[in-house]
Amino acid sequence: MTRRPTIIDVAREAGVSKSTVSLVLQNSPTVRAETRKSVRAAMARLGYVYNRAAANMRGSTAGLVGLVINDLRNPFFTEFATSLQMALAARNYATVIANTDERPDLQESVVGTMIEHGVSGLILCPAYGDTRAAFDAIARAGLPCLQMLRGVDARRDLFPLIAPDYAEGSRAATQALIDRGARRVAFVGGLDGRAVTQERMAGYLDVLAAHGQTPLCLTGRSSRAFGRDAVAQLGTYHADVDAALCFNDLVALGMLTGFQAAGRAVGQGFRVIGFDDIQEAAEAYPALSSVHCDIAGIGERAAATMVDWLTEGTVPPPETRTPVRLALRASSGD
Questions:
Q1: What is the value of pTM for the model shown?
Q2: DSSP class per residue in 41-94
Q3: What does the pLDDT look like over 149-203, one tens digit per residue?
Q4: Residue 322 to residues 68, 281, 295, 301: CA-CA distances in angstroms?
Q5: Could you give phi then psi for residue 305, rounded to 5 degrees?
Q6: In this structure, are strands 289-292 and 325-327 parallel, antiparallel, or unpaired?
């Protein structure tokens, strides 16, 4: 068994109920000696270690979950952190939040501090780079840990991933642009080589291949500034491009600003679709079409998953992809 064994694994190994295992762990006199011996033997075979701190937390009215975010300046991650914190609070769990500013060294530091202060579990929107030390520390501590929105550590048996179905989102968005008459669609934003960029680009590449169109990928920082600058780059070097799928809404909003400054219409002229559907997307002018990732729903799912893991020993599957949908507005001609 590569993951940390749970009380459910012990019950299955010993051929008893989970409640019986719990009674053995509590040294209840109601359990027969033979059953107690069988359960203890199963624990030894599996290498099960009783987490008394977690057990004490389950018996109380509150627990503490560490939430580590790679970039709280990005509204997508801010909205996620808020929805998750509120969902945990509804379940009587407190949340301690840290922003790593995409720095692996800072991530290692804050994770270590949270472990020292006794968090019962961790939820990470991980930074990119050399992150092994932070995840190794969590593994040594034996704490439940979810990777959220982006997967960095490949040990999904220890650190399961919950993220939107990015590939399906880009597939639907690209097809929508072509259905609306786009003759050449560019993919704009996202740092080259990162897994999340490749995932958000995958559906775009599939659809263009099916339609015999040549892809154009302008990778770079996922910021408004990059989106604004991309408008000038497209106008100068790629005048045949008449639509863009953006890595995220920040890039798309920057493109809207760039087109406005250039005096070019967006919607019927040049079509733009963003990604994430942050709150500002619907409030922009023109209103920004976007791949809706249901950030609030993902926060609720993450909270429920973590609480079930802590209280019931229910280990989530290695990877969960949540559904996405298109929110079509004026920027794509809708």
A1: 0.81
A2: HHHHHHT----HHHHHHHTSS-EEEEEEES-TTSHHHHHHHHHHHHHHHTTTEE
A3: 999 999 999 999 999 999 999 999 999 999 999 999 999 999 999 999 999 999 9
A4: 20, 20, 10, 9
A5: -65, -45
A6: antiparallel
Sign for the pseudo-dihedral over CA of 129, 134, 140, 146: negative
Residues 260-285 have a mean pLDDT of 95
Residue 277 has pLDDT above 60, yes or no: yes
Res. 57: pLDDT tops 80: no
Q: DSSP labels for 103-157?
A: -HHHHHHHHHHHHHTT-SEEEEEPPSSS-HHHHHHHHHHT--EEEESS---S-TT
Q: Contact, 220 vs 186, CB < 8 A? A: no
pLDDT band at 79; cut points 50, 70, 90: very high
Q: How confident is the model at residue 43 (pLDDT cuts 50, 70, 90)?
A: confident
Instruction: Pull the structure tokens for residue 159.
Output: 């650190």
d(CA 175, CA 146): 32
Phi, psi of 156 (to 5 degrees): -70, -20
d(CA 53, CA 63): 10
The stretch 82-110 carries a mean pLDDT of: 95
Task: Please state, in angstroms and rounded to a whole number, the distance separating the CA atoms of residues 12 and 39.
Answer: 10
CA distance linking residue 190 with residue 204, whole number of Å: 13
Distance CA 245, CA 252 (A): 8
Domains and CATH numbers, the chain: 7-50 (1.10.260.40), 56-164+295-322 (3.40.50.2300), 166-294+326-332 (3.40.50.2300)
When pLDDT is cut at 50, 70 and 90, the band that residue 333 belongs to is very high
Cα separation, 245 vs 276, whole angstroms: 12
| Contact criterion met (CB below 8 Å) for 123 and 67 | yes
